[in-house]
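This week, study the protein below.
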Amino acid sequence: QVQLVESGGGLVQAGGSLRLSCAASGRTFTNYAMGWFRQAPGKEREFVAVISRSAGTTNYADSVKGRFSISRDNAKNTVYLQMNSLKPEDTAVYYCAATPGTYLYTPRSQAAFGSWGQGTQVTVSS
């Protein structure tokens, strides 16, 4: 499995921005599609965004489309989640996840991902 460590969470006012980072180690980073999920208090963990191995394909939850952007730097073994126009309902613990697959593979299901980070808290105040 690949090891994942998230960073970049924090407290931000509504309308603000944050960029989350997820550093991967232990396996060949380019073999993995990378995803972001989140879990708000009292709710189930949900899909946010995913990017393919080649970075040629991305997929977003409807709730973040147009506000969030996922990217990856394969030279740095890192995936990013740029979050703009944040809303209080974006408050959650954000998790990075990895799954091996073909070059354009972009699953949305948590069950497809075998490696997970420990999570980073994002709090958006109104």
Summary: The chain has a mean pLDDT of 96. Residues 4 and 117 are 5 Å apart (CA to CA). The chain is about 0% helix and 50% strand.
